[in-house]
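Incident log, support desk, overnight shift.

02:14 A customer reports that sequence design results differ from what the structure should imply. Their input is reproduced verbatim below. On-call engineer (initials T.W.) acknowledged and began investigating.
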């Protein structure tokens, strides 16, 4: 910025094991969105190293990065990012289309993913025929359909009322118990506290990393 170098992320270093469920929490401008983009292979750091599944992603071409995102990362967005004129089934099956999967297999796997998020009876509904919570479940099913090694959720409860947000968090917990690795980015401490591990970020730096306060107290007791 002018003659000044501003580090969106400054000395951030941590690891996430397969099967973990982690929240990254911070205020607006803390650097959590930049960190989310790095984890999702949408941005690359100017210095340092990011390894996904042991592979240094900085060594990959743009095409290889696209393939990596499609096959290994599932994204869940605050605004759902669904095709408004397409059915839930079509929305969920879309990532498989880019892999060249046959139509029959795409639809079968999309139905299975919708069943996992308890929307099997809504396969033919369009987004405007679904509630906010149901739209987010469709978005989660779309993220899961490719069986990614990492599920990234960016403010997944931001546009939902508290009761619906709680149901989405319960769904994430169930998915994690089933073996999915989940990283959730949020500015809401209450949402982050529902995760077993919380990384708090401020001014581009990690200020804490561990169990949320209530869980830490339970473990000491």
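02:41 Re-run completed on a clean worker. Output:
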């Amino acid at each position: 910025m002018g003659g000044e170098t501003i580090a969106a992320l400054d000395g951030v270093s941590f690891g996430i094991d397969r099967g973990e469920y982690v929240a990254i929490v911070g205020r607006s401008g803390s650097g959590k969105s930049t960190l989310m983009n790095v984890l999702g292979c949408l941005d690359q750091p100017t210095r340092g190293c990011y390894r996904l599944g042991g592979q240094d992603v900085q060594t990959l071409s743009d095409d290889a990065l696209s393939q990596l995102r499609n096959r290994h990362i599932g994204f869940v967005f605050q605004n759902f990012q669904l095709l408004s004129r397409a059915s839930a089934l079509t929305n969920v099956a879309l990532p498989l289309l880019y892999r060249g999967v046959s139509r029959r297999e795409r639809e079968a796997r999309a139905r299975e993913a919708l069943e996992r998020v308890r929307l099997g009876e809504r396969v033919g509904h369009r987004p405007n025929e679904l509630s906010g919570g149901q739209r987010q479940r469709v978005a989660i099913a779309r993220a899961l359909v490719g069986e990614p090694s990492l599920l990234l959720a960016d403010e997944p409860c931001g546009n939902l009322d508290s009761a619906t947000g709680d149901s989405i968090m319960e769904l994430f917990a169930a998915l994690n118990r089933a073996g999915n690795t989940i990283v959730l980015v949020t500015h809401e401490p209450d949402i982050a506290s529902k995760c077993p591990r919380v990384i708090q970020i401020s001014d581009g730096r990690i200020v804490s990393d561990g169990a949320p306060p209530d869980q830490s107290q339970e473990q000491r007791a």
